[in-house]
Design the sequence.
């Protein structure tokens, strides 16, 4: 995983137990089946075969056998393969391959609750709210509304509208809530954006009604 516009680190997982000299190895990284991302040709960086979008964006750490991909973007997501060939009696022989799956993460803004109506609230009327968060990646799992009063909290699931920016590929999400105005009791309403198991959740500032 790598944050958007940061450096992604892709490992070859090459133990080099034979302590082979770098000058006897050809190391190249490719994305999918066609795009050459980086090539070290018997100790020298080689740029002839690189896919244009990776030129000046990669660096290989030969001590750690790790490729640095600078300014990682959403288009860089996908599977990368590291292939190492050894120059053995003239003809190169593949001695190691490994694959690495890159996921990009962009932080969503803190969810924000907005009123969707004007005028004063009267009991038994409806309360219309929306909750929005923007500029994140990947697509979130769901949005939950939390309604708390005294010692109890109710979770309400509502439809989440998702839009994706055509250029940046980042997502904006909104959910709407329509409930009866609570009577004679202070109620806190929050909204929770679930980003997935490993990324956790974001919660809004609670709204007191």
Sequence:
């Amino acid at each position: 995983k790598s944050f958007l516009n940061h450096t992604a680190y892709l490992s070859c997982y090459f133990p080099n137990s034979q302590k082979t000299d770098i000058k006897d190895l050809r190391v190249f990284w490719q994305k999918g089946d066609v795009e050459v991302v980086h090539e070290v040709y018997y100790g020298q960086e080689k740029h002839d075969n690189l896919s244009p979008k990776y030129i000046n964006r990669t660096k290989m750490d030969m001590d750690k056998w790790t490729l640095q991909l600078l300014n990682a973007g959403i288009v860089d997501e996908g599977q990368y393969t590291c292939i190492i060939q050894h120059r053995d009696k003239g003809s190169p022989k593949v001695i190691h391959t490994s694959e690495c799956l890159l996921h990009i993460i962009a932080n969503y803004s803190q969810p924000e609750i907005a009123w969707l109506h004007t005028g004063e609230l009267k009991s038994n009327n409806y309360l219309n709210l929306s909750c929005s968060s923007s500029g994140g990646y990947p697509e979130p799992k769901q949005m939950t509304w939390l309604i708390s009063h005294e010692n109890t909290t109710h979770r309400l699931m509502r439809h989440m509208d998702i839009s994706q920016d055509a250029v940046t590929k980042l997502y904006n999400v909104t959910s709407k809530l329509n409930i009866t105005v609570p009577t004679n009791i202070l109620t806190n309403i929050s909204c929770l954006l679930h980003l997935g198991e490993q990324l956790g959740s974001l919660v809004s500032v609670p709204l007191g009604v």
Observations:
- The longest strand covers residues 91-102.
- The radius of gyration is 26 Å.
- The chain has two domains: 2-105, 109-208.
